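User: Some background: our group keeps a shared notebook of sequences we're curious about, and every so often someone picks one and asks for a predicted structure to add to the entry. Today it's my turn. The entry only has the sequence so far, pasted here. Could you supply the structure so I can complete it?
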Amino acid sequence: MTTHRPEIDGLRAVAVLSVVLFHAGVPWLPGGFVGVDVFFVISGYLITAILLAERSRGDFSYARFYARRARRILPLLITVCLACVPVAMAVMLPEDLKDFGASLAGAATFTLNMIAANNVGYFDRAAEAQPLLHIWSLAVEEQFYLLFPLVLALLWRFGLAVVAGAVAVLLLAGIAAAEWWLRQDAAAAFYLLPTRGWTILLGVLAAVWTAMRPVPRSDGLALGGLAMIAAAVAGFHAGMALPGVLTLVPTLGAALVILFSGPLTVRLLGWRPMVGLGLVSYGLYLWHNPVLAFLRYGRTEEPAPVIMAAAVALILGLSVASWHLVEQPFRRPGTRWYRWAVPLVVAVSVAMVAAGAGLVVAKGLPGRFDPAILAILAAEDDRNPLRRTCSSNGPRIVAPAEACIIGSPDRVIGALVGDSHADTLVVPLSEWLTARGQGMALMTYSGCPVAPGIRQRAAADSQCDRYTAMVLDHLAARADLSVVILHARHALYVEGTPFDNGEGGVEDIPPAAFEGTDAPPGSQDEPARRAAVLAAYATGVQRLLDMGKQVIVVTPVPEIGWHVPRHMARAALANAGAVLVVSVASDRFRARSGPVLDAFAALPAHPRLTLVRPDTLLCDTDLPGRCIASRGGIPLYADADHLTNSAAALVVQALAPYLPAP
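Assistant: Of course. Here's the predicted structure to add to the notebook entry:
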């Protein structure tokens, strides 16, 4: 076994405090999430040091290694997960409880990082409603340690120099993979082993190095490492490309502390309170996210600092208690808990998987709530049912010649063209057309404004530019489709960023960067890119007019930032059924959509061109200076930006007078 090093316990304390305070919302620690990377380096170093020592003595056992991991990790992990279950059952909305069930099963099987990679970004607002999300990091570790002892066994016979060389190659490959993957799928790069495991390998390399030759003590290098960690904690932020090359700043810093700590560093990090925090750091990490997630759940505003401070104190108390009552009994040889630890935790883990799967299958048990809450949540499904079969999305294209017809197929007068926002008009528009004996072809592509000359960079499988060309060619060839209704979320493609309402509502979607030039979004040529996208909108309208079409442009609806039905339902649960009126500042909408509105308003006057503005129906109407997202306790949005059918009917009523008479 390795000799106890108090400075590593102190380094653990630095790491866990960074993470906890970051999640508690301390503003001067925007990069506190890098504490997880520091943990990875520490873990890689300590576990490898133990493995190397056992290999050197010739008494390594796979069974003993994995049993030791189970006793170390599972008892407290299971305790925290089970403690969350009754709270989640009491307060979580059905969709959130379903996600919790998936997290519960993922926590028990150490696959939560894979689940998270496909569902939620670590920095998304939705992450705050997932009390077990932080267990993704344990999943990465256990996946690593499932493989690493086997790899070490294969390399051991060739000597430590070969082990070190192989680890270094894998480490560099991991950094390269992270850099590449960040540009393809940032969420996957953040969560998955191939792009995260290299930080553990950095700790592995430090352990192999110290096993090969004595490392001189150097407080200068060690304190420099601490400064690198502090710089990352204070200077990194969610918008940076992580976990790529930049992650070397805190991880190399951690390695320097581990390798070179001298008397001054040991005295600093080995201070008794720091060591104490380090000893309970596992509990601090496990307890912090559930406490903070449940504290925030349903709140429309961030808890007051005094409440947050009390929450952090509670987390510390739970961590100390669980250290004595859970961690130590299962890790101390000679106790009955130690002897029965492995079969017990395996049995409970299986039960957790079954319970989690049950919550997913039961769709979050909606029967727990009264009809008023369920009525609010029903707005999520108050949308066009054809969008999944009749609209194009990703690599799947519905050819314009095979487009679905809404309304009456007997007299098709035109086409509804745009992205998923155009889809929101389908149900009320279809009802209106049917009553008049008319129909329209549905030509929509999710996430694509259908404007010539721009292409989507946000999704590798997007066929947006191809679909746009197909639609325009088809409309040019079909003189009988004389009316075109254009509607899209134009502001998103101009700005390239999710909407932030400035009041705590930040939409949980990835950036949707479109370009009309070769300038990548965010570059020095960003103004040129934005101007090119706006010009593409105008070009599209002009091309349709040149075809002889009557063009009705429906300008952007206000974005909200919050998922409106869930935001209202959570608030109703947290405030004993109180009805929340959801709205955003009109000025915020205008600042975001102003360039788009100006671009369409600047189009030359034409007798066959009409602009319909949904914002005039929703902004400065019920509430001065606000754009409403609910009315009479009923959501007007199915999520954060798509109108419900009932709200879309208002838009259809506004555009209907401009459609040709039957």
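Suggested note for the entry: Residues 6-361 form one domain. The radius of gyration is 28 Å.
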